[in-house]
Structures are given as C-alpha cells and as structure tokens.
Amino acid sequence: MEKNAKIYVAGHRGMVGSAIFRKLEKEGYSNLITRTSAELDLRDQNAVADFFSEEKPDYVFLAAAKVGGIVANNTYRAQFLYENLMIQNNIIHNSYLQGVKKLMFLGSSCIYPKMAPQPLKEEYLLTGPLEQTNEPYAIAKIAGIKMCDAYRDQYGCNYVSVMPTNLYGYNDNYHPENSHVLPALIRKFHEAKVSGKDKVVVWGTGNPKREFLFADDLADACVSLMETYNERNLINIGTGEDVTIKELALLIKKITGFEGELEFDSSKPDGTPRKLMDVSKLHSFGWKHRVELEEGIKLAYKDFLSKA
Fold first, then answer.
1. Which residues neighbour 6 within 8 Å (Cβ) at sequence distance 6 or greater?
2. Which of 181, 218, 280, 298 is deepest in the core (most CB within 10 A)?
3. Residue 79 and residue 93: Cα distance in Å, rounded?
4. For 79-105, how does the pLDDT look when each residue is reduced to its tens digit (9 = 90+)?
5. Percent of the residues in the chain that have a pLDDT greater than 90, as a whole number
6. Are the C-beta atoms of 94 and 49 separated by less than 8 Å?
7. Closest CA relative to residue 223, chosen from 13, 7, 34
8. DSSP for 240-273?
9. pLDDT tens digit string along 149-200?
C-alpha cells in the first residue's frame, strides 16, 4: 500500500477497526477514511453506494460487523444474520464497482465446524455442522469469505479473507449480556471486587478451551498481510495457544484483585469444546504475536478502568 493511498477502515470505532486505524497511523499512512455508524449506515445499500462513489478508496479493511458473545449471538439470531450480510454485501460489491485495489475481509473462528479437528486448519471450512448458538453469525461470515472468492473468480478482484481468533483489547465491549467471555469476566470480577461480593459465578463448566489474541497484534498482522498476502485462500490469525475458561477466569481474578470464590454454573451452555487456530500458514510469512495473555489482560483491564 502506498503511504498516501486512500484507505477506508470500516468499523473504525470498534475494537478491531480502531486497532487497525492506530496501526496504519503509526506506520505513516496519512489518507485514512472513516465514517461513524451515525454518519453512514453500512446496512443501507444506497448510502454505501453513494459513499464509495464519492470517496473512491484505494484499499478497504472490512472490520465492521454486528458482534457479541454467546448470549447475544443466540438471542439476536435474525439480526446477526441480516445485518452482517447487509454490511459485507454492500461494502464488497461497491468496492468492486469503484475499483478498489484490494480489500481485506475479517471473519471469525466460529466459521469452522463445531467438532472440527484441533487445531483448526483453513481447509476445514464447510466440512461439518456449525455450533448452533452462533450459527447465523458464522453463516454470514462464511458468505463473506465466499463472496470475496467469487469476486476474485469472476472479476479478478484482489480480495483476501483473514480469520481472527477470539480477540480482546482496547475499546472492547464490556456489556454484561452482549460481550465476549474475556471482557465479560473482566467486568464481572471488577464489579464483584468493588461491591464486596464473596463469589463470582461463571457460565458453563470451565472446561472449554479458548485462544485469545490482543487486538493490536491482530492489527499488526492485518496491515502486514494487506501489504504482502494476495492469495485466494483464507488465512488464520491467532497465537496457536489456548487456555481453559477456568484458567482464564483465575487469571482475570488475579489481575483484577478479586479475593472471593469462583463458581461454575454447569447448567449454562459451554459452546464449542475447543477453538484453537492452526497458525502455521501465518507463521510461514514470518508473523508471530507479541502480546502474551497476562500482559494483554492487564492492558485491557487498565483500559476498562479508564472508562468505568
């Protein structure tokens, strides 16, 4: 990417988009285009068409999406499917119409089958049934990957898809019902400490294993791949390491300073037993994560406290 190229970061105020924006600024890219959701409704076909026609960006990072944790995914199933399809359809199609040089689509590790072998290789896509609780979101993301492939096949577009693992970091969503597991636990342990509670109850058995990547590491990988990766096949972005939810909860308990008990509610769903990314393809390009989990959670907790 040229340093003065017009680069549109869709979703620049979210955790992922803001991390990409910061990384681009740090690397000296000076012509960054953004719109808040109030300024541009990405679900609105005409509005997105007008925006692309007016701005004509050279490069696009498609980091905008309707996202949430297990409760939100399972509760707002229609919205997660409809809104994500609309957002990505509008951006991908108008990128083609306006001659965008390259687009990067950010998916999610939930695209892989629920019982896929571990670690998750890129070629496992569409080889089995999805996890039921977030199936609508996963289907939308799979459609985005296939849309990028189809536009490459039919029109020769240089559209690439990357699949981040579970993310956390600055500007995360700490909503008590709609957030992902790591930020939800940060909030839960912090509030329990402040209110003097003697225990924190965590959903599920604590046995599922999850991989977590600091969002600024993801941004670093995305910008690096945007500059160097031009293949049709999707590529995983993660650490290649995972922890149990129990281990995660104990780590957050320590970092937040909560001194009470930890209890698991096994009547609540666990979700997929394990979701570890195979990142050998990513590592073959010379990229590896820098921020380890404990350090990252400390940074995220500090960010949470600054906004609490």
1. 31, 33, 55, 56, 57, 58, 59
2. 218
3. 21
4. 999 999 999 999 999 999 999 999 999
5. 86
6. yes
7. 7
8. S--EEHHHHHHHHHHHHT--SEEEEETTS---SS
9. 999 999 999 999 999 999 999 999 888 776 788 999 999 999 999 999 999 9
Mean pLDDT of 122-145: 95
99: left (phi over 0), alpha (psi -120 to 50) or beta: left
User: Residue 81: CB partners within 8 Å, gap ≥ 6?
Assistant: 136, 137, 139, 140
Give the chain's count of helices (H) and strands (E): 10, 13
Has residue 138 got a pLDDT over 90? yes
Q: What are phi and psi of 284, to 5 degrees?
A: -65, -20
H-type alpha helices, 76-180: 77-97, 135-155
Which backbone phi and psi does 303 adopt, to 5 degrees? -65, -40
Q: Does residue 37 surpass a pLDDT of 90? A: yes
What is the C-alpha separation between 247 and 118, in angstroms, rounded? 19
C-alpha 106/C-alpha 223 separation (Å) is 12
43, 87 in Cβ contact below 8 A? yes
Single-letter residue type at 162: V
**Is the separation of the CB atoms in 107 and 92 below 8 Å?**
no
* 137 is a catalytic site residue: yes
> What is the C-alpha end-to-end distance of the chain, expressed in Å?
38
Q: Give the rounded percent of residues in the chain with a pLDDT score beyond 70.
A: 99
**Cβ atoms 251, 207 nearer than 8 A:** no
Task: Name which residue leads in pLDDT, 75 or 280.
Answer: 280
How many whole angstroms separate alpha carbon 280 and alpha carbon 286? 10
pLDDT at 259: 95
Of 8, 29, 59, 137, which one is the catalytic site residue? 137
- CA 251 from chain center: how many Å? 22
